[in-house]
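Q: what does this look like with adenosine-5'-triphosphate bound?
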Amino acid sequence: MQLGREHWERAFSVLERAFSLNKACSIKDMKNTFQLVRNIIPPLTTKKHKGQDGRIGIVGGCQEYTGAPYFAAISALKVGADLSHVFCTQEAAPVIKSYSPELIVHPVLDSPDAVQDVEKWLPRLHALVVGPGLGRDDGLLRNVKGILEASKARDVPVVIDADGLWLIAEQPALIQGYQKAVLTPNHAEFRRLSEAVLRDPLDSSDPHGAVLRLSQALGNVTVVRKGERDVISDGRQVLECSQEGSSRRCGGQGDLLSGSLGVLVHWALLAGPEKTDGFSPLLVAAFGACSLTRQCSHQAFQKHGRSTTTTDMVAEVGPAFARLFES
Ligand SMILES: NC(=O)C1=CN([C@@H]2O[C@H](COP(=O)(O)OP(=O)(O)OC[C@H]3O[C@@H](n4cnc5c(N)ncnc54)[C@H](O)[C@@H]3O)[C@@H](O)[C@H]2O)[C@@H](O)CC1
Ligand SMILES: Nc1ncnc2c1ncn2[C@@H]1O[C@H](COP(=O)(O)OP(=O)(O)OP(=O)(O)O)[C@@H](O)[C@H]1O
Ligand SMILES: [Mg+2]
């Protein structure tokens, strides 16, 4: 299909808004970063079997929070994963199952055998997203510590979000130097993490530097600081994503981001650095998830305005993905 001038002008302005690398970057660089995300997306063919495009696990879901793991898990499927597992507490499981028949739900997180119960699934999972709706119960966090250690031992990529970041702020050594980890803190989580790791009050005058320093202090773990602009760093490079989103700040948008990122991390690592042109695959995956989440927010807000909720954004994942990465 021939794309018209208007399409390219619109795409160009999206790219301009969406990308900057350490403040200095050319238009070519901007186009390239979206192109790098496109490069990691596996083609849809008739030759694949179920599971090949992603088997993602979400660790979270407790008495108080059932929406967060649902949003993360359903977003992973909508981005293009084949199977999405949720490992949650016993009482959260029937609730999460009832939201969607598409999710595989394991009521194991508060069992005495939680670590073994999750560990036996690890060889079949491509990435874990740890934290959405986990809560801060000491017993659950002890189990999650064991799950993280088992994931590292098996080289499983992990995205750590929400209450998973509470655990990392308490015990940064758990993730120190693990090259297949991405942390996705919001405003409060970033402050907590940064002050715990760097043992200094957060310098709010230098948002790029603050993310760079945290990533370096954690041994080049990739950090995505969400906010008005998302700042992403692997301790070597800094990317900023300011794709147009919306002014709605309803809960759950970060869960959509972390679930999407679980899939993109798997795709990026599978594609390898030759497809990401010298950028770390995890940086490219993170840029993809940030721009996708913000585009979902933008599209949902255009339809629903102030009443926009995360469910409306989930419905936009397919169209937003196609618009950003497949047009
Ligand atoms: N439907 C659900 O089940 C949801 C559950 N959630 C879960 O709720 C738990 C707690 O997550 P929270 O994100 O509330 O974490 P926290 O309990 O650390 O709270 C963060 C606080 O920071 C404030 N804040 C956020 N952005 C700010 C900014 N820019 N400036 C100043 N203050 C700011 C928020 O109002 C909130 O009070 C997690 O397990 C999370 O996954 C959320 O994901 C939202 C949806
Ligand atoms: N002020 C803002 N303007 C535009 N987009 C924003 C703003 N703050 C956050 N976002 C976007 O909203 C999404 C979620 O970020 P947020 O900081 O709300 O995460 P969160 O608090 O973890 O969400 P959740 O409620 O799922 O836990 C990200 O894509 C981020 O880019
Ligand atoms: Mg969150």
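Strands lie at 20-21, 55-59, 83-88, 104-107, 127-130, 158-160, 181-183, 222-225, 230-233, 238-241. The first strand starts at residue 20 and ends at 21.
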